[in-house]
Structures are given as C-alpha cells and as structure tokens.
Write a structure and sequence with these properties.
The chain is mainly β. The protein has one helix and twelve strands. The protein has a single domain, classed as Porin, CATH 2.40.160.
C-alpha cells in the first residue's frame, strides 16, 4: 500500500512537470486558409469606348480628261465605340489570348473634292473598324499588362468612294487590365492601325464624254485608338 502511494505521487509529479514544460514551449500559429489566386483563363465579352484619329494622306485620281490629279486628305479625330469577345489562357504568370472586336467610328473624310463632287464621292458617311488580334501578357494576380496585334479591316479616313471603304491591314498595341471581381474586369488600351491603300475603278460620263476613272488612296488609311473597356469573364473554362 505504501508503494502504491509512492507511485501515485511520482505519477502526479511527472504529470505536473510535463504540463509546466508544455506551457513554456512557443505556440505555433494556426495556418489561415488563403484564397485561391485569380485566374485569367476563360471566355469573356464586353464593350468599349474611346477616341480615334486618322492620319493625313493623299488620294490620286487618274482622270481620262484632266490627267492625273492628287487631292490631299486631312487627319481627323472622333468617337469610337463597340464590343469585343475573346478567350484567355493562363500558364503560371503568362496569359495568352485571342480577341475579336468591331467598332463604330464618327470620323469623317477630310477631303475637299472641288471639281470632282459631281462624280458621286461621299465624304460624310461614318466608318467602322474591326480587328482580330492575339494577346500575350504578364499577370500580377489581378493586374494584367499585355501586348496585342493582328488583323485590322474597315476604314478610318472617311468613305472616299461612294460611301464604302473596306480595306485590310494590321494593328499593334498594348494595355493594362484589372479584375475588380472574379467576373468583371476593366482595362485601358491603345492601338495603332495601318490599313492597306485601296484602288477603285469606275466608268462615268462627264460632259458627254465616257471615261474610266481610277482612284487610289496613298497613306492616310491609318490611325490610332485609345479606349477603355469593361469585360465580363465567364466562370466556365
């Protein structure tokens, strides 16, 4: 019985020592779960608006009566706005994407046709511009800095041939985009657009004389765009 009391007292002493030693040990912080990093991968659709401008240039006319004539065009600036759709794919911090957009433009032609107004040239119609571009960027979580470039089509310099201008060329630019939520992003983007010059031929009768007129635009069929955009990114990938 005496030995039992000794063992009980020894066990109590060891238990107290263990508790004291445990109290002296540093406390390990409980890890706090971190929210998952934002992913840019997925389809998106959005709208944009901004400012566009066109370069000045020259329009050449081959007149069977008066010979070859050149008409200067003035650069213009105005509103641009439209919509875009695209897809991004993120690999670590690198983001790769493809985007297509279509824009309305209020830019008008800056051509003073003078003696050729009778010919049916139209300098008052509005323009459109579309692009199909690749994007490559580097993401800092919810902030994306990117470069973009690809195909451009349409016109920026006013419809200088019967109200129709559908030239094709290239565009190059870049921007910065920020994800406000997991679905909504906003960005500011700048593009330079260079459209190939168009050649147009038509037959007209002037003062009883039938002639074939060739009109070509040299330079001036380019310009730039600075715009802001808002996109909605879908959750499904």
């Amino acid at each position: 019985m005496k030995n039992l009391r000794v063992w009980i007292a020894l066990a109590a002493l060891l238990s107290g020592l263990s508790a004291a030693m445990a109290a002296d040990l540093p406390h390990r912080p409980v890890p706090v779960p971190q929210p998952p990093a934002f992913s840019w991968t997925g389809f998106y659709i959005g709208v944009n608006a901004g400012l566009g401008w066109s370069n000045s240039g020259t329009i050449n006319i081959s007149d069977p009566i008066l010979g070859r004539t050149s008409i200067n065009t003035a650069g213009r600036s105005g509103f641009v706005g439209g919509g875009q759709i695209g897809y991004n794919w993120q690999r670590e911090r690198w983001v790769f994407g493809l985007e297509a957009d279509i824009q309305y433009s209020s830019l008008k032609s800056g051509v003073a046709w003078a003696a050729y107004e009778w010919f049916g040239f139209n300098s008052s119609n509005s323009q459109y511009l579309g692009t199909v571009r690749a994007r490559v960027g580097y993401a800092f979580d919810r902030t994306l800095i990117y470069l973009t470039g690809g195909l451009a089509y349409g016109g920026l310099n006013g419809n200088w041939w019967h109200g129709t201008t559908s030239n094709a060329g290239w565009t190059l630019g870049g921007g910065i985009e920020y994800a406000f939520t997991d679905n909504w992003t906003g960005r500011i983007e700048g593009l330079y657009v260079d459209l190939n010059n168009g050649n147009h031929t038509a037959t007209r009768t002037r003062n009883g004389v039938l002639g074939t007129y060739t009109v070509s635009g040299t330079s001036g069929e380019g310009g730039g765009i600075v715009r802001a955009a808002i996109n909605y990114k879908f959750d499904w990938k």
